Amino acid sequence: METKTAKILDGKALAAKIQKELAATIAEVQPKIGRPPGLAVLMVGDNPASAAYVSNKEKACAKVGIASFGKHFPTHTNQTELEEVIAELNQDQRVDGILVQLPLPNHLDAISLLHKIAPDKDADGLHPVNLGRLVRTEAGLRSCTPAGVMRLLEEYKIPLVGKKAVVVGRSILVGKPMALMLLDADATVTIAHSRTQNLKTITQNADILVAAAGIPRLITADMVKPGAVVVDVGINRVTDSSGKSRLVGDIDFAPTANVAEYITPVPGGIGPMTVAMLLQNTVSSYLRTNSN
Ligand SMILES: NC(=O)C1=CN([C@@H]2O[C@H](COP(=O)(O)OP(=O)(O)OC[C@H]3O[C@@H](n4cnc5c(N)ncnc54)[C@H](OP(=O)(O)O)[C@@H]3O)[C@@H](O)[C@H]2O)C=CC1
Ligand SMILES: Nc1nc(=O)c2c([nH]1)NC[C@@H]1CN(c3ccc(C(=O)N[C@@H](CCC(=O)O)C(=O)O)cc3)C=[N+]21
């Protein structure tokens, strides 16, 4: 039997293009504004995955001309200390974006910290005001990963109106805002989660399938409708048979690529798009703050 291979939705290439455009915008307006955009990434503890991600973000900032005001705190840092740092950053004229790297150590209350970030500096789009704006389809800072998925689908002119979209995962960071953005684009959206029964019968209906559960190979080729658009948000570090550590998504990639029409790779798919959207959110806050 002849098998077709899906076209790749190249997040790495699009992220590079977006970063170039942001660099050009910054180079143009910075002389007028008199300072570069600034992003503060707060990280607590020493989760190795978080550390790698934070360092990626700082490199990307440096590349486009965004100043980093990152702070790394020891694991035992308490809630009040972090709240004070956020209050200072809210007031700091050099800082346009603030992000608290998740997950936080267990003794800290992430939700309450996110509430303390000034909504217009909320580069991650996780403050209740920005989530409310998303629900109401008002302009606002949007969660970076789902925004990156939407931007990538747009780049490849994937039709969404009236399509059946299935999102696997319902977190505040990814699944819920993803479902709302697809809904806003006039897709018919189903959200699946860990208590969903017969996941396969649901995913098999999807014209657009977004996997964001954090489980390697949760989605196998038999769960995917032929011709579907498959987006893999999952980032899982696994050890392969030769003992080497590598990143995989939630989709069983090679077999699924023989069924789908479009697919995102891991790495090189939604990860780089997330970073690009974070930079874009920071630059939009910078432009808005300095537009009068
Ligand atoms: N590419 C990128 O830029 C980013 C990637 N990620 C990655 O995406 C993945 C998801 O992240 P995040 O949303 O923060 O993770 P969470 O752990 O917060 O959420 C996972 C979601 O998946 C659901 N789930 C778990 N098991 C199953 C299952 N067997 N069947 C169906 N649904 C299931 C959970 O359901 P329930 O609610 O019932 O528990 C939950 O809603 C992770 O791999 C993460 O590393 C995250 C952010 C950015
Ligand atoms: N407040 C908060 N906001 C987040 O957006 C957030 C978070 N916390 N906590 C952790 C998750 C995870 N996440 C990733 C983003 C990009 C890559 C990324 O760039 N990945 C590259 C590979 C990187 C590598 O090789 O290590 C890729 O997929 O090609 C990975 C993971 C954002 N998250």
From TrEMBL:
Catalytic activity, as annotated: (6R)-5,10-methenyltetrahydrofolate + H2O = (6R)-10-formyltetrahydrofolate + H(+); (6R)-5,10-methylene-5,6,7,8-tetrahydrofolate + NADP(+) = (6R)-5,10-methenyltetrahydrofolate + NADPH
Domain of life: Bacteria
Binding site for NADP(+): G169, R170, S171, I235
PROSITE patterns: THF_DHG_CYH_2 (PS00767)
Residues of the Tetrahydrofolate dehydrogenase/cyclohydrolase catalytic domain: 9-124
EC number assigned by the record: 1.5.1.5, 3.5.4.9
InterPro entries according to UniProt: Aminoacid_DH-like_N_sf, NAD(P)-bd_dom_sf, THF_DH/CycHdrlase, THF_DH/CycHdrlase_cat_dom, THF_DH/CycHdrlase_CS, THF_DH/CycHdrlase_NAD-bd_dom
Pathway(s) this gene product operates in, as recorded in its UniProt entry: One-carbon metabolism; tetrahydrofolate interconversion
Keyword NADP (UniProt): yes
Keyword vocabulary terms for this entry: Amino-acid biosynthesis, Histidine biosynthesis, Hydrolase, Methionine biosynthesis, Multifunctional enzyme, NADP, One-carbon metabolism, Oxidoreductase, Purine biosynthesis
Sequence ranges assigned to domain Tetrahydrofolate dehydrogenase/cyclohydrolase NAD(P)-binding in this UniProt record: 143-287
Database matches in NCBIfam families: PRK10792.1 (NF008058), PRK14186.1 (NF010783)
Annotated family: Belongs to the tetrahydrofolate dehydrogenase/cyclohydrolase family.
UniProt subunit comment: Homodimer.
Functional note: Catalyzes the oxidation of 5,10-methylenetetrahydrofolate to 5,10-methenyltetrahydrofolate and then the hydrolysis of 5,10-methenyltetrahydrofolate to 10-formyltetrahydrofolate.
Name listed for the protein in its UniProt record: Bifunctional protein FolD
